[in-house]
Write a structure and sequence with these properties.
It is a single chain. The chain is built from 13 helices and four strands. It has helices spanning 14-42, 55-84, 88-104, 111-138, 145-173, 186-208, 236-251, 258-265, 269-297, 300-317, 323-351, 357-382, 389-408, and strands at residues 8-9, 12-13, 176-177, 183-184. The strands form two sheets. The protein has a two-stranded antiparallel sheet. α5 packs antiparallel against α6 and α10 packs antiparallel against α11 (323-351). The longest helix has 30 residues, at 55-84. The protein is globular.
Length: 415
């Protein structure tokens, strides 16, 4: 699936663009649920309890179960995809299950049903995530892998950033009258749109994406390592996973402490939303350019520069005193994250063994999800000791990530 002139548009393989567009629609549908599900839990439409969990924690558990299930399933899903030598069928299968489960939320009446649905949804997403990133990796040559990873991530972030805004509008404007006198609630409408977005992704992948000719079933032993197979030191893919985890933790701090941020900056939820979206916009805008540059100038200089940039931009968010300063710091942090994200995925792709893309690249996709959770937990725990403390702790972790990448990862292909 190497890029050729007849298969490219604006320098990017058309099949990668199709896959990126599919993931954008899928990410938008998923991010709909981030806004909708807490409100759904708080409504009178679902009730009950499970294992003594109070209703005040149900929304948090419902949201967290998706990431937890996805993180656990991704290495297994990637390994299965490698063993069968199939990518497209896993992408489509995961999206179809995700869509069906999303529609089923409208019929749920008990908390435990939401828990089960989110676990199934997260597991389905694991198959889509690992197979799609493997497709992008195998559809790239070393001199195009960075730009392809950048475009893929950028489209996905655009979808994820647009979802909450659209979901809020759909909920606010509901209920909706239907032909024949029926009524569709705002919740039902958002679940339907999220499911439709996933089905749109299915159509795009089915029509425009094919498995690379060189992708074949692999019977090799699973090669996810902490230590290098030969020589001393840590495995470079493992180190890149740690760097991705730290980057994700740094950019996720703000989302968990909205009340504290609003109180410190004397602002309301609208300005907080602007600050939140500022990072996503910066991250999405810069990644294709950074990825392309890393193809020409090497991966590690960008990764190191991004991790170094995370130190002041993360710490700075704990020191700002006005909304404008926070917005500026978030934009800069998004730029630092862009320097890390696409080049790290591309370099990990450079290091993957033939037939092992699904499992080995899951190290980075899992790390990103765990990093988001780690950042939220870090912020929620350490903010009680002072507003700047969680930002200082995360900035310190970024310093450690700089040292790890500098000493353990080299800008070269393995022999």
């Amino acid at each position: 699936m190497a890029s050729t002139t007849s298969r490219t548009w604006l320098g990017t393989d058309r099949r990668v663009l199709a896959l990126a567009a599919a993931r954008m629609a899928d990410a938008m549908g998923n991010s709909f649920l981030v806004i909708v599900l807490p409100l759904y839990v708080a409504s009178d439409l679902v009730t009950g309890s499970l294992f003594g969990i109070p209703s005040s924690l149900v929304a948090g558990v419902v949201l967290a179960l998706f990431g937890l299930a996805s993180s656990i399933a991704q290495p297994l899903a990637g390994r299965l995809s490698d063993r069968l030598g199939k990518r497209k069928v896993f992408v489509i299968g995961g999206l179809v299950v995700f869509s069906l489960v999303t529609l089923t939320f409208a019929a749920a009446t008990q908390y435990w049903e939401l828990f089960v649905l989110r676990v199934v949804q997260g597991t389905a997403a694991a198959f889509t995530i690992t197979a799609s990133i493997a497709l992008v990796n195998e559809g790239s040559q070393p001199n195009t892998r960075g730009r392809h990873m950048g475009v893929y991530n950028s489209f996905r972030l655009v979808g994820f950033g647009a979802g909450p805004l659209l979901a809020s509008i759909v909920l606010e404007m509901g209920p909706y009258g239907l032909p024949g006198g029926g009524v569709l609630s705002g919740f039902q409408a958002t679940f339907g749109i999220a499911a439709a977005a996933a089905l749109l992704s299915v159509g795009l992948v089915a029509v425009l994406v094919e498995d690379p000719e060189e992708t074949a079933p692999s019977s090799q032993r699973l090669a996810i390592r902490i230590w290098r197979e030969e020589g001393s030191g840590l495995d470079p893919i493992f180190v890149l996973g740690l760097a991705t985890l730290v980057m994700a933790a740094c950019i996720a701090l703000l989302s968990a402490i909205e009340p504290e941020v609003n109180a410190r900056l004397n602002q309301g939820p609208i300005l907080f939303s602007v600050e939140f979206v500022a990072l996503i916009a910066s991250l999405a805008l810069l990644q294709p350019f950074v990825g392309r540059a890393s193809d020409d100038w090497g991966r590690t200089p960008f990764i190191l520069a991004g991790l170094i940039g995370l130190v002041p931009t993360t710490l700075g968010q704990g020191l700002v005193e006005t909304p404008l300063e926070m917005i500026a710091m978030r934009v800069l942090q998004g730029g630092a994250g862009a320097l890390v994200f696409a080049p790290a995925l591309a370099l990990a792709g450079d290091y993957t063994s033939r037939g092992q893309s699904g499992a080995q690249l899951s190290v980075l996709t899992v790390s990103f999800g765990l990093g988001i959770a780690a950042g939220q937990i870090t912020a929620g725990f350490f903010v009680q000791y002072g507003f700047v403390v969680p930002f200082a702790v995360s900035a310190g972790l970024a310093v450690g990530a700089v040292l790890l990448v500098y000493t353990q990862v080299h800008n070269r292909l393995p022999t």
